[in-house]
Amino acid sequence: MPQAVPKEHEVLVGVDGRILQDEVKPLVDAEIIEEHRRNPIGFHTDELERVLIYLRKHQLQQEGKLVIVCTKPHKEWCIGVLSGVRGIPPTILRDQVFSSREEAEHGIFLKRIKDLGLV
Amino acid sequence: MTVVGYSDKLSAFPGEKIKFMVSCDSVEYQADIVKLIHGDTNPDGPGFKEEFVQTGASGRYPGHQQEIHSGSYVVVQDSAGFQGLDAFALQAYIWPTTPAKGPQGEMKWCSSTGWCMSANGVSKGAQGIITKWNAASRSGYALVADEDGCVALWLGDGNGGVAKISSRAPLLAKCWYFVSTSYDRGRVVIQQEPIVGPANGRFSLPYPLDGTTARVEQTTTVRPSGAPGTPLLIAGWVELIENGMLVQGGKYNGKIDRPRLTSRPLARDEMDAPQGPHVIAAWDFAHGITRKGVATKKATDLSANGLHGCIVNQPARAVTGYNWTSQDMCFVHAPEQYGAIHFHDDDVADAGWEVDFELTVPDSIRSGLYAARLRAGEDEDEDYIPFYVRPKRGQEAKIAFLAPTASYMAYANDHLTTNAALAELLVARTPVMGANDLFLAEHREYGLSTYDTHSDGSGVCYSSRLRPILNMRPKYRHWLSPSLWQFNADLHLIDWLTEMGYEFDVVTDQDLNLEGVDLIKPYKVVLTGSHPEYYSNQMLDAVEAYQRGGGRFMYMGANGFYWVVSYDPNDPNIIEVRKGDGSNAWKALPGERHLSFNGEYGTLWRHRNRAPQKIAGTGFVAEGFDISSYYRRNPDSFDPRAAWIFEGIGEDELIGDFGLVGGGAAGLELDIYDQELGSPPHALVLASSEKHTDIYLEVLEELFFNVPGMSGTQNARVRADIVYYTTPNGGAVFSLSSIAFCGSLSHNNYDNNCSRMIANVVNRFLLDEAPPSTAEAAAVVAR
Question: Is there a contact between B421 and A2 if contact means CB atoms under 8 Å apart?
Fold first, then answer.
């Protein structure tokens, strides 16, 4: 798997920022958000899938990437934030608790598009 | 986790003893033996099933904490030759991978505070190269890469006097250096010189390394102690010795080639084969390389003193040395260019824990998958240590489940969720972490899987089962699957066989590797697991011999018979794989694709012209891990020679449009029928899956160029083929070609078309009469 190298990453971030502005941002609207809420995993429209692929890449960085943490099997899920550092487990965000994996998946989608200023 | 453990054996006969090693934070824990039936806790399925087994091992045991010390090194016991040196030199070729800054932050060991975290990209700390150094007493002498990434000589008199003399020129990562430190009655010389060849390192022109050449001369009043009683280490130093157990400090990442200890410095041209009374020790890591590999754990000293070392925690062998030219790609052809070992601070070959309790496998017990169930603490925190009980010889059932334990080991304690940037893209879902994953994310010392990279970015080519493997557990849900994967997913099949009332035995890859076809010859039917991906030469030979001998083989999954592996010929608890030219989590470095354990070419079996299609009729074509789909019957399924397989299944029925793994029987990884790669021309392709998402992409080894249109909704090659064909002497092969399939067997209380189809095949295969022959079914079709 690729390792982040500072100079290469700096260049990647620059190009990635333009991809975000030119290719991804115009696709984010109420329609794809609703589509994701109804069906967060599986077949999607091309518009939603393109946005999801961008979000999943997270500029190939692990630090700050979101994961789902199952805090009670089959009952409770939270969002976790990866440290990007070996040996430091993800920070679990307890402010939001989800009652299904799909809800957590959608919670992460909403958080990501909000954090990126796409809504 | 309050309680975790592992066992010394993976499988045992009735009457044999199994030892269990446990670490427990509570005062005590309860241990019981259970038979595992179904490991999926999903409320939409049949639920978790285990059966208590009365044994002498049941009871409450005192808890005590046991630690794992990861990190590989060579240890040489103390010797008179290491003492009383007025003059000496420590020299080697080194290829440091994290001389100052790791690709990610690292855990590091501090003498004063124990494990602590260095922030991302900050110095890893000093690393021992050749050391006779006791960190507790700060005594001895040591060649190190210091905390600034410079070569240094450390001297300690054991009475507080310490001198640390540095080259003051930081080493560049992944470049070879000749490093030399010497002491002669107070005079110290430090030298580091880049060795740049066209292929041996990261650069082929020396310009980036110009500033890293150094020679420093200095005097010191510190007269080094010989650190009596302290072993000499290569790739670390002695942090402490606790209850006779050595704890390594200064864990080095990178390669070391030709380490030397002499009473006067060697010139470069003397390094290869030093001789004479001034040579105290000259270790040769290429020694022991034969046509059959280099499985030895001995580091041979070429000097007359015989100061041989022991290689601890399985660092990478058969790796290119400082003088590798790239003209020979295999270490057995040019051992002198493979005189290096690649050490890692996170290698683990054996946790080495004390034994906590033993089980004598009861004589009356039936073959199956069992576990020691450990429960501790107020919350009844639990762990299961799985093991397999084999049938008594001569008393085998007619059916065997061949548990793909080599593949379980390959995935052992994987860290892809936290470490692999591509993980989420691969599964098109956000990976889910559970309690075991959170524990592993914190406890990196529990070791890695062959899907991980080491802390220096190099691929993990060995996996040992002598440590708690927390993703090889019942109830465990794996991030890669929508639900279950590997060990726990295979309980879906064990459950189905149990619920359907079949009498069956369970045998393992490890047994197959050791015993060959004799292990499975007694069985009418052998069923694989859902993902028998990692195969050794011996295992492939055994399966083919079984098929030639009239065995009936049911391939119950996909992406099987894929990676070339070898078990350590001296230790069946360790496997090796060299990745490349496949769908790979990492790629072996140039010149490092051959397995150290046996000298064979690694990567995929198809690159050795033993594609899975030859073994199972189908082979890996596509993967995606979001949702699963269904199969539709092909015209071949109505052929009278195969119609019996579909008895009770309607002509237009979709097969497996339900299930506990992604909601369908066709999913995760898919295999395809392909005559060019060896699928038998006389096979019937009974059903094929369809309607896969665009996350399912054709795999890398199938591609010539990366072009559009390779994904599920645009590519008819993204599918799983159910295939049936007969083999000599009344044998047959039936292949499902999908990892998800077994998750559909329990649907509707085991009354569904997947269950019906598999029962039809098993029942027919159990008969003495040969299954309907497909031999005249098809002519060879040239593509």
Answer: yes
